[in-house]
Amino acid sequence: MQVHLLKSDDELAAVADVLLQLRPQYTQASIIAQIQKQRLSGYQIAYVLANQQVLCVAGFVVGEKLAWGKHVYIDDLVTNEQQRSTGVGKFIIDWFKAYCIEHNCQQLHLDSGIQKFPAHRFYLRNRFNIASHHFSITDLAAK
Description:
The chain has 4 helices and 5 strands, in the order βααβββαβα. By secondary structure, the chain is of the alpha+beta class. A 5-stranded mixed sheet has the order 1-2-3-4-5, with helices on both faces. It starts with a strand and ends in an 18-residue tail after the last helix.
């Protein structure tokens, strides 16, 4: 297994297929277009590849905030359904920890839907803390 950083659009189709398992509201074409758009603002993709198969994908940004200092925020993290509980998730989280240290980031962050209990157990096992409640308004046009 090896972690790769997405370098070109040629890699997008295989990565998009796995990301669609997390974001089924997209089609392959629309998720690729959205990834290309977000890459213009610093969005990066790391993925685990073994035997020419994408095992795990993580979309992330490196940023700076008053609250966190320099940090990595993982926007999207999904392990291919056929590869869950094989250690690939821990493999990419360990890679992110090393990436943060290498890039002088003080913290590593992500959000997880409140209903994703297996993911929460995984994050807690991998040294993540439940650090806050995330609040959002998702229907700004409504009154």
